[in-house]
Amino acid sequence: MGADVASKVADKARPDQDALDNIDEPEDENTWHENPDTGGLKDKIKNNIPSRGAMKDAANDAKNSAQQSGDTNSRGGMMQGVKNAASTLQNKGQENMSEEDQEKARQKKEEAKQKAHDRKEQAKGNTKQFLQEKIPKERREQTVYRLKKMIVEIQGHSDCKFSQLKMFIFC
Known about the structure:
- By secondary structure, this protein is mainly α.
- Among the domains are: 52-96; 99-134; 136-171, no CATH class.
- Helix content is 73%, strand content 0%.
- The radius of gyration is 28 Å and the shape is flat.
């Protein structure tokens, strides 16, 4: 299987014959590529970075939240303080952004989530297909049977704390 994977990677990474034929030819002279239009993104980011005062306010919020919980040394108190600080910074950042920019940011975030989900599903499907091609059905079924048998044996042991998982595994 490792050799098959390496072979497929090599096939995808290998340049086509036209690229290989033209490898010694230099690029055309004075070829310029335009910078992508970022729509003033750099300036928008600079304008939306919280000020030093906002950062201090957020730090004070975090400190106050931790002190109010009465537990400044525990993880819970610190986490609540960090959450409050993050909320303060987010609110300050949103005050500086127009509604249109906020909507664009939300759309980009959703698009990125959808692309990541699609890539994950595609990789999952490709992996399933590859394993089905390379591992015979009888071998797969035998492996599943052995894994189930091993789980039952572990759950039957007196030290096992996961016996409630049995209903999920065999459903």
